[in-house]
Amino acid sequence: QLQACGGGVVQGGGALRLSCAASGGTFSSYYMAWFRQAPEKEREFVAAIRWSGGSSYSADSVKGRFTISRDNAKNTVYLQMNSLKPEDTAVYYCAAYTGAYYSQDPRMYAFWGQGTQVTVSS
Fold first, then answer.
1. Taking the chain, what is the end-to-end CA distance rounded to the nearest angstrom?
2. CA-to-CA distance for 117 and 41, rounded, in angstroms?
3. Sign of the alpha-carbon dihedral angle for 20, 46, 89, 78
């Protein structure tokens, strides 16, 4: 089970940190990712990281502004979002995937959190 939180309303240029707590299973071999979905748009890949360590990946639209990280002791994955823009407004979801390589395709992810709303005002 994945539980996402940390969303809110922030002015452009501000920052938020999203958290995704994992429970009820072993996610050590999983890729953890954040996706987002704005109204009337498809779900979009944001960032991913392997739970057991290694490289992280992020979409071009958020590189240099968003950072994904994990805390194994707390079974939690974070998304630090800085320099937020109005176009970052969306519902943000965390997800888990057991493949050997990370994927930007949301259809590959079997486990999803409930989503948390991020609204960035101009």
1. 34
2. 15
3. positive
**SS3 (DSSP) at 86:** helix
Whether residue 69 contacts residue 78, with contact meaning beta carbons closer than 8 Å, is answered with yes
As a whole number of angstroms, the distance between CA 55 and CA 101 comes to: 11
Residues 43-62 pLDDT 10s: 999 999 998 877 899 999 99
Residues with Cβ within 8 Å of residue 122, at least 6 apart in sequence: 12, 86
Average pLDDT over residues 61-76: 93
Half-sphere exposure of 37 (CA within 13 A, CB side): 11
DSSP lists the bridge partners of residue 58 as: 47
Mean pLDDT within 22-45: 90
For 88-105, how does the pLDDT look when each residue is reduced to its tens digit (9 = 90+)?
A: 999 999 999 888 888 999
Task: Indicate the DSSP class of residue 108.
Answer: G
Residue 116 near residue 86, CB atoms below 8 Å:
no
Query: What integer pLDDT is reported at residue 100 of this predicted model?
Result: 82
- Residue indicated by tokens 């072993």: 26
